[in-house]
Write a structure and sequence with these properties.
The complex is a heterodimer of chains A (150) and B (432). Chain A is an alpha/beta fold and 150 residues long. Chain A is built from four helices and six strands. In chain B, helix 5 crosses helix 6, helix 6 runs antiparallel to helix 7 and helix 12 runs antiparallel to helix 13. The chains are: A alpha/beta (150), B alpha+beta (432).
């Protein structure tokens, strides 16, 4: 059975932990591994993300984002909705959307992909996650658990 | 008579390079009046940060200079201090340092070929467009890159800013359980790398012929990666300690990276320079492959750096596969070191070329001052010289967009790591 792959992307710095903490929350909900679900944490996957998606039927990616919306706002991008907004590429800037666009061009994007962005406030090393982001993490984990582990 | 155009081209931000830079080009009366590679990424002051730090912290601090080539910084720093402290690495640590470094070459070169440079030669704007017309080759490149990352992760716990190296060896020896699977992957990748070399050699790279000095480390027995003296194509062999007698760094107002010169001349470092100086150190079958694909060495067309990178991926895979054959966990992955006062100097071959470190240390093992000369700053003057010659060969009367793209190709071909050097491209062309 092709797995559902849930990948949390982040770093240990402040609100940028959001992607990782969603994975922790899914573990706590019993929806991280088993029953066809494989969940993992990544820091800067770059183009390596392509290989991680290759044998999945359904991929769910969670990353922090900053668009100017209030911290804790949840964004969702579905690559099936249209071309991915990819900025100019460099290896420093090879982000999640660029990796998804590359997977799309290679024809190896899972049939179903959801990309969640949690709006964050700051990503200072050593800081804890802010309260609105923490709430969003738990809300998103609950939502993913319903769709992926039900 | 055709009127000579006067043009100004500014490339404000160069894509597909590491870091931030720009190019200003002013053409007047059909002649290049100004050509400046402007590196404006802010200085990063790493050498200053190192002052007062203990030698045990240096490998992890310098790894942070670059996310693509952290191993080069770690191994160079460790080698310099081990030399000062009179430490002889165990054969295990020596061999595994080379394997670790091979992982970085495989990863960095695969990334550059497939995601940064190759799109230029297929009329593509980026790797995503290239993936649509050459999916098999891009997939192969991603597999090779991932294998390089895996080797780095094997020794350093992660591929970006790994933490494995310590002065005297490694913090730990990876368990043998993972080695068999890793060697199988390396073995399976060898034909892939050979196919990559053939593919790279068949890419219609621009024709060019330039006279330049190549500089790279050279080792008496093996293809130099993690140790060796410095060789130049004029025949000089220079010990790392003699660097300052032959190389000079200077500030230019338009760049936050220092410019380097060799006896007053620009020079080339990197994969083509290494092949130009050390092709005789390659294994016989790799040399046979180079001959078969018609890759004439020493090379005078810097665009052939792409082929040189492919050859070095093959070499690095072979070396890693060979050196992991008898892998066993040593009694200790490191030997103890006792700090002493003095000057520590070493150089190695980062994926982009010669990397030279110098540390003045006190008796407690703390840094009094540090100097790090990365490959990109050494190539900076050569890139400007190359641009000048390439543009004249290409034709200054070409449309601005064609000039801009050609300049970008020339610069990207050097795989410049501006973040390392600042310590990339906005093209601004002015025709008056």
């Amino acid at each position: 059975m092709k797995p559902v792959r849930i990948l949390g992307i982040g770093s240990p710095s402040g609100d940028d932990q959001a992607g990782w903490l969603v994975i922790d929350a899914l573990h706590a909900l019993g929806c991280a591994n088993g029953k066809g679900v494989v969940a993992g944490k990544l820091d800067r996957p770059g183009a390596g993300l392509v290989a991680l998606l290759e044998d999945a039927e359904h991929a769910i990616l969670v990353d922090a984002m900053q668009s100017g919306a209030p911290p804790g706002t949840l964004h969702c991008v579905n690559p099936a909705d249209g071309p991915l907004p990819v900025a100019e590429l460099s290896s420093h800037g090879f982000g999640v959307l660029a990796a998804l666009a590359l997977a799309q061009a290679l024809g190896s994007l899972p049939r179903r992909v959801e990309v969640y962005g949690i709006e964050i406030a700051s990503a200072q090393p050593g800081d804890a996650v802010s309260a609105p982001v923490r709430s969003a993490i738990h809300a998103l984990a609950g939502r993913i658990a319903v769709t992926a582990c039900a | 008579m055709t009127e000579k155009r006067s043009v100004a081209i500014h490339v404000p931000v160069l894509a597909r390079v590491e870091g931030e830079g720009a190019l200003d080009l002013r053409i007047e009366d059909g002649d290049i009046r100004e050509l400046r590679l402007r590196i404006f990424e802010p200085p990063r002051f790493f050498e200053k940060f190192l002052e007062g730090r203990h030698c045990t912290e240096i490998p992890d601090l310098v790894a942070r200079i670059c996310g693509i080539c952290p191993v080069a910084y770690q191994v160079t720093a460790a080698s310099a201090l081990e030399k000062l402290y009179g430490v002889e690495l165990s054969p295990w640590a020596r061999a595994m340092r080379r394997v670790f470094y091979c992982g970085e070459w495989i990863q960095s070169h695969s990334l550059h070929i497939h995601l940064l440079a190759a799109p230029d030669f297929f009329g593509c704007n980026n790797a995503i467009e290239l993936a649509r017309i050459a999916p098999g080759e891009v997939r192969r490149g991603l597999r090779l890159q991932a294998l390089g990352n895996e080797l780095m992760d094997f020794f350093g716990a992660r591929s970006v800013h790994p933490v494995g190296v310590r002065i005297g060896g490694f913090h730990g020896a990876p368990a043998p359980a993972r080695v068999a699977a890793l060697r199988d992957k390396l073995e399976a990748a060898l034909p892939e790398a050979e196919a990559l070399v053939r593919w790279a050699a068949a890419i219609p790279l621009p024709a060019d012929d330039q006279d330049f000095i190549s500089v790279a480390t050279r080792h008496p027995a093996v293809y130099a990666i993690e140790h060796g003296d410095i060789a130049a194509s004029d025949g000089r062999v220079i010990t790392p300690e003699e660097f300052d007698a032959h190389f000079a760094e200077r500030h230019e107002p338009h760049s936050t990276a220092l410019f380097s010169s060799y006896h007053g001349q620009p020079y080339l470092v990197g994969p083509l320079a290494r092949l130009n100086l050390s092709a005789d150190r390659l294994p016989d079958d790799v040399r046979a492959l180079i001959a078969e694909i018609g890759f004439a060495l020493p090379g005078r067309n810097v665009f052939h750096s792409l082929v040189a990178r492919a050859v070095e991926i093959l070499l690095a895979l072979r070396e890693a596969h060979r050196l992991l054959a008898d892998y066993r966990v040593p009694d200790s992955p490191w030997v103890p070191v006792t700090p002493r006062a003095g000057v520590a100097v070493a150089c190695t071959e980062a994926p982009r070329g010669l990397l030279w470190h110098r540390y003045e240390m006190d008796g407690d093992g703390r840094v009094l001052n540090a100097r790090i000369v990365p490959p990109t700053s050494q190539n900076q003057a050569r890139i400007e010289a190359d641009l000048r010659l390439s543009l004249l060969n290409f034709g200054l009367d070409r449309p601005d967009d064609a000039l801009r793209l050609h300049c970008e190709k020339v610069i990207r071909n050097y795989d410049p790591c501006i973040s390392c050097a600042t310590h990339f491209l906005r093209l601004k062309v002015e025709r008056a």
